Structures are given as C-alpha cells and as structure tokens.
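User: structure tokens for this one?
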Amino acid sequence: MPHARADRHVIANVPAFRLCAFDGGNEVLGMNVVVGAEYDGRSTPVFADSMEYVVFRPYWNVPFGIAARELRPRQRRDPTYFSRKGYEAVGSGAGRYVQERPGPENALGRLKFIFPNRYAIYLHETPAKKLL
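Assistant:
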C-alpha cells in the first residue's frame, strides 16, 4: 500500500474486517465491513485507487454463478419469484443476465462507492446487517 496518502482517505483493513475514514490525519469514521471469502482464489485483493463517484439506489448485476445456482432454480419453481423479490432478467440470448432493482432489500444497499479498478471492486452498503 502506498505510504503517501491524501489528506482525506479511506482504508479498508481486509484482515480486520474494518473500514476507517480519515480527514487531516484524524479518524472520523470507523465501521465493521464484510469482505470476500478466502476460497477458490476469490479473496479480496489489496490495492489503492481513487474514488471517482457514488451511485445512489444502485442496481445489482447478479454474478452469473449466483443467478444460475440460486435465483434461476427459484424462479423455475415459482414464476412470481423475480417480481416478488425485486429481480428482473435483462438482455437477450447469451447476453441475458439478472439484476436486482434498487430498494430496501437490494444486496448493495442504498449506495455504492466507485473507484474503477481492474478487480471490479467497490464499496457498498448492505441490508444484511447481521453479517456485520
């Protein structure tokens, strides 16, 4: 990690499951966080980048594996599952995917912080407070 940091910065301490925000060298915010699981090479990468923007009420594009294993079987058993739970199938053919509409149960919560990076990692809220 870089030693030189901006006056205002955020550090996600992955091993400690903790996020801290600093302003002028003083910690002004601290909270518990959930990070990627350490299995099959899916651990959360360590990197530094600049935050570029915030998305309010984000859609969640469900990863193909989660959609195939968890959501699509439920939709086949109960055709109303997607509409009841806030999901929708988007696109067509091989480009078809599942997204979750914004709302109180959206997996990304009410906002996500974007700092484009090669890992497709971003910070976001969660409605699953029990995970924290």
